[in-house]
Amino acid sequence: MKRLIAFTLILMTALTFLPVSVSMTVSAVSPGDAIINIDFASGVPDGMELVGAELANDPDKGQVMSFAGGKSGTSFARLETDIIKNTDFSEGLSWTVWVKGQDGIHGCAPIFNIDLAGRGYLALLADLVVTVNSTGNEESWGHPQDVIWSDPADAGNEVSKLENVWTQFTVVINANGVNLYKNGKIYDKYPFENGNILDRVEELITQQMDRASGLTLGSYKCEWWNFGDFAGLISSAALYNKSLSADEIKDLFVNSGGIYEEDPTEAPAEPEPETDAPPAAEDIDAEDGDVAETPDGDAAKDSVTPEEPESGGLNIGIIVAVCCGIFVVIIAVVAVAKKKPEKK
Q: How far is the C-alpha of 285 from the C-alpha of 300, rounded, in Å?
């Protein structure tokens, strides 16, 4: 009898906490899963070249990298590596960067840049455009077959969309297109509201990435670039050889110190005032008591709108019912055991 009761209690506990256990089985990703992980809190990575950039202390992020901005090629942190070109990106690529801009940044100032063949780039700009060029801008019109080039922003749009607050941006590129996330949420504003913004994306991740020589924060490694460098702070950056999911991006944001804000839900409509008052005398036929027709010829009728069940109420109800049922069984078993005559 004691074993039966103990088993029943264990079963009740398992059923009660089942939804919690299921919700916790969510795939997680960390900076340690990245093929390249740069965290300036740990100092300057081995082999990183600094020009016009230096370590600084930030009250929110601690030790970060500060970029002076200015003329192109005068403020950057560059890491030369063969890791990128020797990595398979057939399942997509993603990168994330924590950045804090300054006022007056040029919209084309690069934040995060993967160097392609020493002249081209795959980058996120300060106007939040993701752009690719694999040979050099001056050759793009004459050699379109050798170029992956996409800049959906207006050529005259040179306004930075970076704010003077710490923000995490995550770029996800796969065969379906490109998405940008800001602070763990999909960024669906211009130029991302129309979906794919890069031409020949599949070629980029399956062929062009094997030309990568490293990555640069704050500038391009291009002789012809002359739009200015990034001015501000970067605390960390990471590159992944996979297409991160929305849940993984949210987890990365929260686990790296971000406060995720849920989207506000629409406020429920205010209920209409109840009309329990009886109909006026002139609206009732004296002979048979029928409701008189309205000016449109339709009889007035009372309408009742069924109440919507609360979301998630079904699962909770089932769990409560099962637990109550088990509890009743326990009481019944104990009662029967007590009434059973003792053997002489």
A: 13
